[in-house]
Amino acid sequence: MKCIVGLGNPGFKYRKTRHNVGFMVIDELLHRHNWKLTKNKFNGLFCMETYQNEKIMLLKPQTFMNLSGESIVPLMDFYQLQPDQVTVIFDDLDLPLGKIRLRQKGGHGGHNGIRSVIDQLGAKNFNRLRFGIGRPDTPMSVVDYVLGKFPKSQHPTLNETIAKAADAMDEWMESPFQVVMNEYNQSSAE
């Protein structure tokens, strides 16, 4: 069994903000596979489907970003998932828009959603897909920036990056994470 988690904030107000790129990737996967988030438990919306004889869960925590671990970890405990069976997708200021990076472990890098997961899990060894959103061109607070929406001029790159992140997760449904990481980190560096 594998679980793909997209981080974001619930509610219409946050729907297309930079902080919600994790939700956007989950939405793309739902659309591609004609799946629906039919379960509402563990402070999250999720589905469990079968893909290539593997059980796949997609999860959107509904706790707000800073408490994401309060949704992810109870779900992991209930389904007895190990950290390496989970990939968390989240926005990253340190990568430019258009880039993704996959990692198998690491710190939170100042991201409060990842900080919550690490704190609740008591471990740093879960898979991550970092989705670049870049830093603001003009002086503004990080909070205002991540809770702001992408300008129309960035929509083509945003959509390409959502598709690339979903492609990586499609591949992870069938392959070891290390294989996917090697392929997508190399292609993302070009």
Automatic annotation (TrEMBL):
Q: Where is this site: Stabilizes the basic form of H active site to accept a proton?
A: D91
Enzymatic reactions: an N-acyl-L-alpha-aminoacyl-tRNA + H2O = an N-acyl-L-amino acid + a tRNA + H(+)
Question: Keyword Transcription regulation: yes or no?
Answer: no
Matching entries from InterPro entries are given as: Pept_tRNA_hydro, Pept_tRNA_hydro_CS, Pept_tRNA_hydro_sf
Q: Which UniProt keywords apply?
A: Cytoplasm, Hydrolase, RNA-binding, tRNA-binding
Kindly give the Gene3D superfamilies that the UniProt entry links to this protein.
Peptidyl-tRNA hydrolase
Q: Where is this site: Discriminates between blocked and unblocked aminoacyl-tRNA?
A: N9
CDD domains reported in the protein's UniProt record: PTH
Spell out the catalytic residues.
Answer: H19 (proton acceptor)
State whether keyword Chloroplast applies. no
Protein location: Cytoplasm
**What is the top EC class of this enzyme, as a single word?**
hydrolase
Q: Which residues bind tRNA?
A: Y14, F64, N66, N112
Q: What PANTHER family does the annotation carry?
A: PEPTIDYL-TRNA HYDROLASE (PTHR17224)
Protein name in UniProt: Peptidyl-tRNA hydrolase
What organism does this protein naturally occur in?
Gracilibacillus halophilus YIM-C55.5
Q: Write the gene name.
A: pth
